[in-house]
Amino acid sequence: MDLDPVVLFFLLGVAARLLRSDLRLPEAMYEGLSIYLLLAIGLKGGVELARHPIAALLPQALCVILLGLALPLLAFPVLRYLGKLDHHNAASIAAHYGSVSMVTFAVALAFLADHAVWHEPYMPLFVVLMEVPGIVVGILIARLGGEVRGVQWKTLAHEVLFGRSILLLAGGLLIGWAAGPELLAPQSKLFFDLFKALLALFMLEMGIVAAARIRDLRRTGMFLVAFGTLMPIAFGVIGAITGRLIGLSVGGTMLLATLAASASYIAAPAAMRIAVPQANPSLSLAAALGVTFPFNIVIGIGLYLWLAQRIHAL
Amino acid sequence: MTMTTHPRKLVVIITEGALENALSRELIALGAHGYTICDVRGRGSRGAREAAWEADRNIRFEVICDETVAEAIASAMREKYYDDYAMTLFVADIGVLRPQKF
């Protein structure tokens, strides 16, 4: 089996970290690349969105939001009763797994392009829709555990909704939709043709960042390792079934499975740190970034395509 | 040439980047006239804080103020953040040249 170069770049980053190399992408470059990736994904979806009647998407969009609300409710009891984590930590980790990882989605897009599998072009819209519900449900569960100091919903909503990931994804979708393919053609070399190369560069840094979490795992124990690999598979199955039921193609089903299986490690940690300070961020980051993210990149994405194909063959 | 300085307190808070917005608002509300923030990394009782990426940033606030405000800041931080956040706070005596500014 040929390994995708994007995955190999990721593994190089992991190796660099484990070998204690001084390699590190400058902060400004990391930020620049993440802005580029968000915009590129948004633009690409937006350009195609121009050709679709938006009203027809509403039922699907609603189901995707429901999926985002349901996932943390499923994850919480597993963490709380099987993993014996305290209430706040279980709620916080559930929020991470209810939300999504944009980078995992980007790698899944590149993977589908390599395998020439078509997908619904408006899938980036679902990333926007799935980022927030999981976080909100996680915070609500945490509050049921009592004694979370007054959550300032206004501040929190501002940070989550106008954080750069949603702003740029949604902004890119809008620009792509408003401008259409012809007007964007002069920019397509940068935003579309170079996408994979820049993603590869970004994955180098993600490898370093993910490997830095491995040390935390030794302290947090085997449960989170098992949770971080098994939960995405279970969520991937749920996502794939949902995708099939709402009428997505094989590619779209695979992407929805990937979204369901992925765990947030940018938006969710920032929100949970503010809303549920009692939760220990090194537990949730160890699971989301140290286990689930690498698992999805190296094994999960291929698995979800296989799953989507199987479910569509039924 | 002699330099006349006026005694003030320098309050330094080293903490998680997640608190930047909240603290910026609170310090002013507690009576500080201003503050300086920089990104830092290091190691402490809550482990190495490498500031390797955005969800793991650490910041350092510096506030120059009088003693009353310094005490208000210190007790507010202790009450609200010490339990749940990585936070180091210390106060130093300093001299400023323009007392009206602080």
Summarize the entry for a quick read.
The complex is a heterodimer of chains A (314) and B (102). Chain A is mainly alpha-helical and 314 residues long.
Structure commentary:
The complex is a heterodimer of chains A (314) and B (102). Chain A is mainly α and 314 residues long. Chain A starts with a helix and ends with a helix. In chain A, 79% of the residues lie in helices and 0% in strands. Chain A is built from 15 helices and no strands. The relative contact order of chain A is 0.19. Chain B is α+β, with helices and mostly antiparallel strands and 102 residues long. Chain B has helices at 20-29, 67-80, and strands spanning 6-16, 36-40, 42-44, 47-49, 58-65, 87-96. A 4-stranded antiparallel sheet of chain B has the order 2-5-1-6, covered by helices on one side. The two termini of chain B are 24 Å apart. The mean pLDDT of chain B is 89. The chains are: A mainly alpha (314), B alpha+beta (102). The A-B interface holds A 24, 27, 30-31, 155, 159, 205, 208-209, 212, 265-266, 269-270, 273-274, 277-278, 281-282, 285 and B 16, 18, 21-22, 47, 50, 52-56, 81, 83-85.
